[in-house]
Amino acid sequence: MVFRITTLEGWTDNQDNLRSTLGDFVIIYFVLLIFIGNFFVMNMMLAVIKAKFSEMHLQNESETKKKSFNEDFKLIDEEEPFSYTIKDLSEYAKFY
């Protein structure tokens, strides 16, 4: 019944039945349940969307860094093999 009320699907039938049985104070219960329930559901959806977006953003960022790292090493190898120093290698290792 709570799910039907929070999704606003046929909640008026439940409200009318309970109001005729228990009285008018049931309206307060339904109003609070609708506002709080919908607020909770909306926040949960937004949290899931934000988590997925952040995960994909971090994955894309790491792939970009790896791609840049590999391209930089290809350029170094094409220029002069073994011409880079340990300092150069340590700067590239900071990406990982």
Q: What can you see in these coordinates?
A:
By secondary structure, the chain is mainly α. It has one domain (2-93). Helices cover 82% and strands 0% of the residues. It is built from four helices and no strands. The protein has helices at residues 2-6, 11-22, 26-79, 86-93. The chain is rod-shaped. The chain starts with a helix and ends with a helix. The mean pLDDT is 77.
Radius of gyration over C-alpha positions, nearest whole angstrom: 29 Å
How many discrete domains?
A: 1
Helix/strand-derived class? mainly alpha
Percent of residues in helices: over 70%
Report the uncertain regions: none
Specify the biggest β-sheet: none
Strand content: under 5%
Number of helical segments? 4
How far from one another are the termini?
A: 52 Å
Approximate shape? rod-shaped
State the order of secondary-structure elements, H for helix, E for strand: HHHH
Q: Indicate the mean pLDDT.
A: 77
What is the count of β-strands? Answer: 0
Features:
4 helices; 82% helix; 96 residues
What's the arrangement of secondary structure elements?
Blueprint lengths: L1 H5 L4 H12 L3 H54 L6 H8 L3
